[in-house]
């Protein structure tokens, strides 16, 4: 991207022009938690609410037809963005809800050959966000299945040699890109391992879909989840992806209106996917907003965004590595690495560091980032994390480095 293109992108995000802490310009380096939203996304939601708001898949009047068209058009846009068919994505309140839904359904005895039961094995990794770990712990508890995991390498990647998969493995769930170490997983290699033993794969794509081209069909994963608020979209909306042959077999998770075919007093038959998995009134304006976010990112180009973030990440790794006493968790280069950079500064607790940086208008995440196990595996209690996105600049990274140096001087007194 040229400087003019970067400046134009930044103008799309009004919040980036804000000042904080007595007039300091904000440097937002926490997009791995929640990204900022461009005005175009807000306007798409606003236009829907102010001119088209009505229940979808319910009314025969014009407003309801327009609302349904907008909702389903957004589904088409979002599906195309991740290389899926329209009927393969269902909307949820977020990725956490989607991953919980997948785990719950795989424990339902109506799920046919996909059903997880006693004697089966569920495999995860130590890199996982709690949202792709705790649901599997619960599934193991409910069904009597065994839970095991791949450990991590010294540079924060999945150690694929740490365990051997056998025929008892029913599910392999793993992250596409770590929200702590930034490591990007070789998805095809993991899928091949799972297929070899007849297991299904579940991909946490929250940190990959916003930052790089992702095609679920090409990756050949069985299930996946991602959220809207990390990819310039609204909060309160996420996506549950499943191969159509799986979704046709799975029972519903929530029941009620909209997801039924016929209802009798003693039994009910269910609608075809994806409606089967969208009970009740949906988060319609948020879905429309997520569709607009996909359009926004597509107009820039995901290859372009990935290349720009690689430049920024390389610059940040070099800048931070030059600071005495600073240790980076995760890969030291940009090879197979995303833009989430977690680090510690000797002698400064991450929470204290975060407060000093906040005084300079620099916004980062501190703590365990909803990923305790990987921190324990890498022998740290907590980290500071800067996570970059398409609207960040080298100047903001320079501000981060200067603020860290100021913190070092302050705590060295």
Automatic annotation (TrEMBL):
> Sorted alphabetically, which Gene3D superfamilies does this protein's record hold?
Aspartate Aminotransferase, domain 1, Type I PLP-dependent aspartate aminotransferase-like (Major domain)
* MF GO annotations: cysteine desulfurase activity; pyridoxal phosphate binding
Cofactor(s) this protein cannot do without: pyridoxal 5'-phosphate
Q: Which residue windows are transmembrane per the record?
A: none
Catalytic activity, reaction form: (sulfur carrier)-H + L-cysteine = (sulfur carrier)-SH + L-alanine
| SUPFAM superfamilies reported for this sequence | PLP-dependent transferases
Sorted alphabetically, which keywords does the UniProt record give? Pyridoxal phosphate, Transferase
- Residue span, Aminotransferase class V domain: 28-400
Q: A Pfam family matched by this chain, by name?
A: Aminotran_5
Enzyme Commission number, as recorded: 2.8.1.7
- Uppermost EC category: transferase
Report the record's Gene Ontology biological process terms. cysteine metabolic process
Q: Which InterPro entries match?
A: Aminotrans_V_dom, Aminotrans_V_PyrdxlP_BS, Cys_dSase_SufS, PyrdxlP-dep_Trfase, PyrdxlP-dep_Trfase_major, PyrdxlP-dep_Trfase_small
Could you tell me what this protein does? Catalyzes the removal of elemental sulfur and selenium atoms from L-cysteine, L-cystine, L-selenocysteine, and L-selenocystine to produce L-alanine.
Spell out the PANTHER family in the cross-references: CYSTEINE DESULFURASE, CYSTEINE DESULFURASE 1, CHLOROPLASTIC
Family membership: Belongs to the class-V pyridoxal-phosphate-dependent aminotransferase family. Csd subfamily.
What protein is this chain from? Cysteine desulfurase
Q: Which organism is it from?
A: Corynebacterium mendelii
